[in-house]
Write a structure and sequence with these properties.
This protein is mostly helical and about 240 residues long. About 75% of the residues lie in helices and about 0% in strands. The chain has 11 helices and no strands.
């Protein structure tokens, strides 16, 4: 009975707090719409942010760069050198170098006004996507656009890029980049394939049946690549392919 005055406030305070209830409108950002609508908007925003890196890879030059660099490592016959982290980092920085004008245009015309609350989300999306649309239209193959455009109900001409939907332009751009990446990869692998064939013929003619040809061709290919300054040639050619 003596301790009752001390425990009474602890019981009364939570009861009063629970009685007030939880106001979702106070927790969510201010704006029009109900609490459920705001929750849906928040979930959509989080979903878009989670897949944003993948979306940026799809609509930039990263695909072509990483495929060409992967073919280079395969042509050299090296399994883990350079490491995946090195190749991906190099491809990312090359992508930033090529896409800097596009990024700056999207920031100045769309993202920055949106942050400053000067335009709505719908208008910001159109302004941000427009520089990437122009970049993809400049490097996509007409045949690939016609392929995906023929599968849709609405047909558009290639000159009418404003009405061409992203659901048509993005996959067309991706398969165009894959094709060009494999074309560049073939040209990169071809000299190393010739070196492998020459070394294999020499070892067979000399009767060295037990000696693997890769034991000789690997250092020869590395020396050849270093002497011609291969990294400079390859990176420069990849970047110039977007000029």
């Amino acid at each position: 009975m003596k301790l009752l005055p001390f425990f009474a406030p602890l019981v009364i305070i939570p009861s009063n707090a629970l009685a007030q209830g939880l106001d979702l409108n106070a927790l969510l950002p201010s704006g029009g719409g109900s609490a459920s609508g705001k929750i849906i908007q928040l979930l959509v925003a989080l979903t878009v942010l989670s897949i944003a890196p993948g979306l940026l890879i799809m609509i930039t030059s990263f695909t072509r760069f990483v495929i060409a660099l992967s073919f280079l490592r395969t042509g050299l016959g090296l399994q883990s050198t350079p490491a995946n982290l090195v190749l991906i980092s190099l491809a990312l920085f090359m992508t930033f170098y090529v896409m800097t004008p596009t990024f700056n245009h999207a920031w100045d015309t769309g993202l920055k006004p949106l942050i400053e609350n000067k335009i709505s989300e719908t208008e910001a999306f159109d302004r941000i996507s427009q520089p990437f649309r122009e970049f993809m239209m400049a490097h996509v193959r007409d045949k690939d656009v016609q392929l995906f455009d023929s599968l849709t109900k609405e047909k558009h001409s290639l000159d009418d890029n404003e009405k061409l939907g992203l659901q048509v332009l993005i996959p067309a751009f991706m398969i165009s980049e894959l094709r060009r990446g494999f074309e560049i990869g073939f040209l990169v692998v071809l000299p190393f394939l010739v070196i492998d064939m020459i070394v294999a013929v020499l070892t067979m003619s000399m009767g060295m049946m037990m000696l693997p040809p890769t034991a000789i061709s690997l250092p020869v290919k590395i020396l050849f690549f270093v002497l011609i300054d291969g990294w400079n040639l390859l990176v420069g050619s990849l970047i110039r392919s977007y000029s």
